[in-house]
Amino acid sequence: MTFTVRENVPLSQYTTLKVGGRARYFIEVKTMEDLEKAGQFASQTALPFLVLGGGSNLLISDHGFAGVVIFNQIKGREYKDNGDGTSILSVQAGEVFDEVIADTVSRGLWGLENLSSIPGTVGATPIQNVGAYGVEVSELIIAVETYHLLTGIKKVFEKSECNFGYRDSFFKTTEGKGYVITAVHFKLSTIPAPKIKYADLAKRFNEIKPNQLEIREAIVDIRSKKFPDWHLVGTAGSFFKNPIISLAESEILSSFYPDLPIYKTEDGMVKISLGYVLDKICNLKGYREGDVQLYTEQALVLVNYGSENADEIKKIC
Ligand SMILES: Cc1cc2nc3c(=O)[nH]c(=O)nc-3n(C[C@H](O)[C@H](O)[C@H](O)COP(=O)(O)OP(=O)(O)OC[C@H]3O[C@@H](n4cnc5c(N)ncnc54)[C@H](O)[C@@H]3O)c2cc1C
Fold first, then answer.
1. The CATH number of the domain where 241 resides is what?
2. Does one domain contain both 174 and 86?
3. Is 200 among the domain residues?
4. How do residues 36-93 score in pLDDT, each as one tens digit?
5. Is the pTM of this model over 0.90?
6. 146 lines ligand 1 (CB under 6 A)
7. 139 in Cβ contact with 189 (< 8 Å)
8. From the alpha carbon of 179, which atom of ligand 1 is closest?
9. N or C: fewer beta carbons within 10 Å in the chain?
10. Same domain (yes/no): 49, 81
11. Helix (H, G, I), strand (E, B) or coil at 216
12. CB of 73 closer than 6 angstroms to any ligand 1 atom
């Protein structure tokens, strides 16, 4: 397909929440050359731009986006065996993350299996440092390739420059938002390293040491019970972050709610389960306003059962 700029494209079909107005301009990019042309177009129009991956972490206003939406479909992946039990996986940003994970598992490479079943593209994973079941992508990323859409400069960010935090990175800052992520490099391992401390996994595997495929299958199964099928209903998954509080504050909370799941972070703080707080303390599991609900199986998960109104979703958040 040649480079095409479409106009007034409805965005609701590109987001898993299934809401959102129209994009003034919409460009699907399949090559770096397309991306460069899209950058030139955005500069010429002097309009804001938005990079769109799988749309699984986006709430787009009913008024749409009065700028240039760049739909990233640049694909490709490459493995390099380091000969020391590790491999470097380099993936173009438009690849579907879960397809990449399935591929790593089939090759017997360890690292990404706990992140199975998370929707979206590889290019979006560094932005909020995607994480689940005790693993964050930042633990595996060694570098992120970018293209600055307005200056046209290509820059490789080493992991240390990405400023990864809990669901956070440099790419979420005002300065970072100018960069389009074009590829991500992960370091994986052939040496077995099952991460199964998370309660749901620990329970399943008890005394057994699972392989990557068993972990992936367990996670796909667990997640299918906690999340609605995003192909069928509108959802952006866990819409709320788990709060991080001081150890002293967590001790007070735990004295009232001894079952409250808590996880100590590396910097001495404590992450508490907001799912528990919403469910057991606030009694909000299943809470519904119109078509929007805190999912009956997991209160952290926001579900849209048919609203075409982004404001209705925003209200409940
Ligand atoms: C059912 C469900 C379950 C989920 N579970 C989890 C989970 O367990 N853990 C978790 O961390 N997240 C989870 N998510 C959230 C979401 O899947 C991730 O944040 C995912 O990485 C978003 O990818 P995407 O391609 O859909 O990004 P989009 O929604 O398209 O974009 C998200 C943001 O990233 C920007 N962006 C996207 N691609 C690029 C790029 N190449 N360069 C620069 N900016 C870019 C966009 O502009 C936007 O600001 C879940 C979502 C759903 C619907």
1. 3.90.78.10
2. yes
3. no
4. 999 999 999 999 999 999 999 999 999 999 999 999 999 999 999 999 999 999 999 9
5. yes
6. no
7. no
8. 43
9. N
10. no
11. helix
12. no
Looking at the structure, tell me whether residues 43 and 138 fall in a common domain: no
Rounded CA-CA distance 310/202 in Å is 38
- Boundary of a domain, candidates 72, 94, 123: 72
* CA–CA dist 317, 306 (Å, integer): 17
Q: Do 110 and 177 have their domain in common?
A: yes
Say how far apart CA 212 and CA 2 lie, in whole Å: 40
Model confidence over 214-256: pLDDT tens digits?
A: 999 999 999 999 999 999 999 989 888 889 999 999 999 999 9
Dig out the tokens for 314 from the structure. 């925003």
Same domain, 184 and 114: yes
Query: Is 126 near ligand 1, meaning CB less than 6 Å away?
Result: no
130 Cβ inside 6 Å of ligand 1: yes
Choose among 107, 106, 104, 97: nearest CA to 127: 97
Domain co-membership, 68 together with 81: no
Task: Name the one residue in this structure whose structure tokens are 């528990």.
Answer: 276
Radius of gyration of the chain (CA): 20
Residues 121 and 95: beta-carbon distance below 8 Å: yes
